[in-house]
Write a structure and sequence with these properties.
This protein is α+β, with helices and mostly antiparallel strands. The protein folds into three domains: about 55 residues; about 140 residues, no CATH class; about 130 residues, Pseudouridine synthase (2-Layer Sandwich), CATH 3.30.2350. It is built from seven helices and 16 strands. The strands form three sheets. Strands 1, 2, 3, 4, 7, 10, 11, 12, 13, 14, 15 and 16 form a twelve-stranded mixed sheet that branches. It has a two-stranded antiparallel sheet with strand order 5-6. The chain has a two-stranded antiparallel ribbon with strand order 8-9. A hairpin with an 8-residue loop joins strand 5 and strand 6. The radius of gyration is 34 Å and the shape is elongated. The N and C termini lie far apart (about 110 Å).
Length: about 350
């Protein structure tokens, strides 16, 4: 009898244990589900915080971008025009600040102003001075300041653009030209001289660039010679047919015309093979020109602070209350200035 009762108790305990197993599994599943939901909620909260922080960070960058004001320099590579490079700079700054690229506008009041002073040919590289904010008002002064170039000329070939990008229009011998011959004529191109601008240039006729008219095949008359200044001119290297010049000049001077005129003076012809602007006003290529990988809001802010001490006191920006940035709409103004401030030059605002 005792054995039977023990068997019954044992059987009952086994059934109880079996009944408890499903309950334990359900509790574990519920706990796991709760943990998963908690983790998902935490991840969502973290993502929301990260998104908020990112928006706050972008807003801070946008505010900083719109507060930038002054003049700095960038390194223009060969290839793009000065206007194309300025557009690339603008796009990078807007992208960093999380701002959409604005449509071109003709509105007088702009939120962000950016421009350059002193056009560099697309085939040239070197210092390009840029104004941002109220600094665009100082760009005109950059035109009258001195500029320095390293130019490599090629004897024996003339082109319609006066550089290597153009079509060869004439070829002449150069084998009898010596280094002494070149050095002997440089004095004729130093000081206050008269110079005929190239036909392919930013100068305008009836509101259109001469270079644009020529590309259309329209007849273009050469502009009359005009006074320019060459502060220094020296021959750095001569390895026929190539010669290297170091030139420091004033506003409105064309290196392409200089090289072409030197070729003619030597009873030959010549064109510009390479051109580098190493200095514009107080800005130098090595010390001040920002390469493209440093076109950031912080780097430009630091450059503006550093470059402010380079400008003459009379050109320093007056301290004034900065304008409140408009976060609802953003537009940009491009101020493209030609090489000299004359009646046939244009300050273009888009």
């Amino acid at each position: 009898m005792a054995a039977v009762e023990a068997a019954v108790v044992s059987s009952s305990s086994l059934e109880t244990d079996r009944a408890q197993v499903p309950g334990t599994a359900g509790t574990a599943a519920a706990t796991a589900a709760t943990s998963t939901a908690t983790a998902a909620a935490a991840a969502a909260a973290a993502a929301a915080r990260a998104g908020t922080e990112a928006r706050l960070s972008k807003a801070a960058l946008a505010t900083k971008l719109l507060s930038l004001s002054g003049v700095f320099a960038v390194h223009k590579p060969k290839g793009p025009t000065s206007a194309e490079l300025l557009n690339r700079l603008k796009e990078k700054l807007l992208a960093e600040a999380g701002m959409p690229s604005p449509e071109w506008t003709k509105r007088k009041k702009q939120t962000l102003k950016i421009g350059h002073g002193g056009t560099l040919d697309s085939a040239a590289r070197g210092v390009l001075v840029v104004g941002i904010g109220r600094g665009t008002k100082l760009l005109t002064s950059m035109l009258s300041g001195s500029k320095r170039y390293i130019a490599i000329g090629e004897l024996g070939k003339a082109t319609d653009t006066l550089d290597s990008t153009g079509k060869v229009t004439e070829e002449k011998p150069y084998d009898k030209i010596t280094q002494e011959d070149i050095e002997g004529i440089l004095q004729k191109f130093t000081g206050n001289i008269m110079q005929v601008p190239p036909l392919y240039s930013a100068l305008k006729k009836d509101g259109q660039r001469l270079s644009t008219l020529m590309k259309r095949g329209e007849a273009v008359e050469a502009k009359p010679a005009r006074p320019v200044t060459v502060y220094s001119l020296s021959l750095q290297k001569f390895q026929p047919p190539f010669f290297t010049l170091d030139v420091e000049c004033g506003g409105g001077f064309y290196i392409r015309s200089l090289v072409s005129d030197i070729g003619k003076e030597l009873s030959s012809c010549a064109n510009v093979l390479e051109l580098t602007r190493t200095k514009q006003g107080p800005f130098t290529l090595e010390e001040h020109a920002l390469p493209e990988d440093r076109w950031t809001i912080d780097d430009i802010a630091q450059s503006l602070e550093h470059c402010s001490s380079l400008l003459p006191a009379e050109l320093a920006l007056k301290k004034s209350k900065p304008e409140e940035p408009n976060e609802q709409a953003l537009s940009c103004e491009y101020i493209t200035l030609n090489e000299s401030k004359r009646e046939d030059d244009v300050i273009k605002t888009c």
